[in-house]
Amino acid sequence: MEIKKKHVYAMAAAVVAVAAVALYLVVTVVAAPVVANGDNVSVYYTGTFTNGTVFDSNVGGTPINFTVGSGSMIEGFDEGVVGMHVGETKTITVPANEAYGEVNPDLIISFPRSVFGNQTIESGMTVESSSGGEQGTILVVNATNVTVDFNPPLAGQTLVFKITVAGIREG
């Protein structure tokens, strides 16, 4: 009978210990701030194309700061951080329509070569519109015409981001 009491006491102590750890974890997770719309967040990220090629990263540098839901970030990135905790890392895939949009053929414009005067121009160069409001990439140069793409450089691309939340300041 004495042995059974020791086992019962040991099992009760184990149950109490497990319950205490579980309660601690619940309280810690519940108390930790979670990213919500209106919060100012600091994040590290690496952006890649679906083939794994990196197009941008701030890892090892300064985190970017933005207010969630303010429209300062692409929609899919903005929505992707909601619900994350400080120190949490996750990977999100952002389709073109939640990033920089699909390629708009109306933004690919052919100009007479004479518009560029005597400037040395070639495919791949970035040019600015005469109003200074838009930047485009020269696609084709020939003797008579220059074709410029004024779509954002990442238009039409599905983007993959690995994001780590470095800080949250509730809004």
What does this structure look like?
It is a single chain. The protein is of the alpha+beta class and 171 residues long. 22% of the residues lie in helices and 32% in strands. The protein has three domains: 31 residues; 77 residues, Chitinase A, domain 3, CATH 3.10.50.40; 45 residues, Thrombin, subunit H (Beta Barrel), CATH 2.40.10.330. Strands 1, 2, 3, 4 and 9 form a five-stranded antiparallel β-sheet that branches. It has a four-stranded antiparallel β-sheet with strand order 5-8-7-6, with no helix packed on it. It is elongated and about 65 Å long. The relative contact order is 0.22. The model has no long low-confidence stretch (mean pLDDT 87).
Tally of DSSP β-strands: 9
Q: Which sequence of SSEs, written as H and E, runs from N to C?
A: HEEEHEEEEEE
The global form is elongated
Portion of residues in helices?
10-25%
Roughly how many Å is the radius of gyration?
27 Å
Ends distance: 61 Å
Oligomerization state of this entry? single chain
**The CATH topology of the largest domain:** Chitinase A, domain 3
The level 1 CATH classification of the largest domain is Alpha Beta
Largest sheet: 5 strands, antiparallel
Integer count of domains: 3
Name the average pLDDT. 87
Number of helices: 2
Proportion of residues in β-strands:
25-35%
Secondary-structure-derived class: alpha+beta
At CATH level 2, the architecture of the largest domain is Roll
